[in-house]
């Protein structure tokens, strides 16, 4: 499940060419900056509600609404009929497909969102690829760099495989669901239709249609009045 076709319906992006020649899906991340620079055709067909700051190397499709306080540095390619909501921050080398939601106070950096993807509330998406109709719950974070030196590794056949990337967040497959306040550690791969429960600190590969649950025990006790 490490190839692009294992995780993503490439018909659900206008940028399938980005994956050509990629042995592993994450290889597209090393090509992303050059691809965006070569592909962006600056033009703003969107509607603004309020005041937004939009850089010179930005293309935005028809029907997209950009709300007040948004900053799109660029280079960036944003599709049609998207909602880029209040105070969203889109940094360098971002591609957002058609019909996507980038919500309030979300930050995207060096990322590709397939069509119909939802990043709706207080999310960070760095050096990552999100598949068709994938969804991040409020506060979910895709961490993209290790605290310790070295490249990001992925477990392959039980052994760590060096991706060659110092920054690599996550690959989130089509229709995958990431719960509120979950953290995907660098190099996480979430299969198609998989679910990560809220507040989980996930690392590694979650196969398609599997659920990662938090089984931590909870304790309920009697609330005692405070002494006065």
Q: What separation lies between the terminal Cα atoms?
A: 60 Å
- The CATH top-level class label: Mainly Beta
Query: Over the alpha carbons, how many angstroms does the gyration radius reach?
Result: 18 Å
CATH architecture: 3 Solenoid
CATH homologous superfamily annotation: Hexapeptide repeat proteins
The largest sheet, given as strand count, sense and whether it forms a barrel, is: 15 strands, parallel
User: With helices defined by DSSP (H or I, 4 residues minimum), what is the helix count?
Assistant: 2
Report the uncertain regions: none
CATH topology: UDP N-Acetylglucosamine Acyltransferase, domain 1
**Morphology:** globular
The total of beta strands comes to: 26
Name the structural class. Answer: mainly beta
Overall mean confidence score, pLDDT: 95
Structure write-up:
The chain has 228 residues and is mostly beta strands. It has a single domain, classed as Hexapeptide repeat proteins (UDP N-Acetylglucosamine Acyltransferase, domain 1, 3 Solenoid). Helix content is 7%, strand content 34%. It has 2 helices and 26 strands. The strands form 4 sheets. It has a 15-stranded parallel beta sheet that branches. Strands 2-5-8-11-13 form a 5-stranded parallel beta sheet, with no helix packed on it. A 4-stranded parallel beta sheet has the order 15-20-23-26, with no helix packed on it. Strand 17 (153-156) and strand 18 (159-162) form a beta hairpin. The longest helix has 13 residues, at 27-39. The chain is globular.
């Amino acid at each position: 499940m490490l190839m692009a076709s294992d995780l993503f319906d490439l018909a659900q992006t206008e940028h399938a060419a980005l994956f050509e020649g990629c042995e592993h899906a994450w290889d597209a991340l090393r090509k992303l900056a050059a691809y965006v620079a070569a592909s962006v055709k600056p033009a703003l067909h969107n509607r603004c509600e309020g005041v937004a700051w939009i850089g010179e190397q930005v293309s935005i499709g028809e029907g997209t609404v950009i709300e007040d306080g948004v900053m799109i540095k660029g280079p960036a390619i944003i599709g049609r009929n998207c909602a880029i909501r209040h105070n969203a921050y889109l940094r360098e080398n971002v591609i957002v497909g058609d019909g996507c939601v980038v919500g309030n106070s979300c930050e995207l950096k060096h990322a590709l969102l397939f069509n119909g993807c939802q990043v709706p509330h207080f999310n960070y998406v760095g050096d990552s690829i999100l598949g068709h109709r994938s969804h991040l719950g409020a506060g979910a974070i895709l961490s993209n760099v290790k605290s310790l030196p070295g490249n990001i590794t992925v477990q392959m056949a039980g052994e760590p495989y060096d991706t060659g990337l110092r920054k690599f967040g996550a690959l989130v497959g089509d229709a995958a669901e990431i719960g509120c306040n979950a953290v995907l550690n660098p190099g996480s791969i979430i299969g198609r239709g998989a679910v990560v429960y809220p507040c989980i600190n996930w690392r590694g590969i979650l196969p398609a249609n599997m659920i990662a649950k938090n089984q931590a025990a909870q304790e309920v006790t009697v609330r005692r009045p405070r002494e006065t």
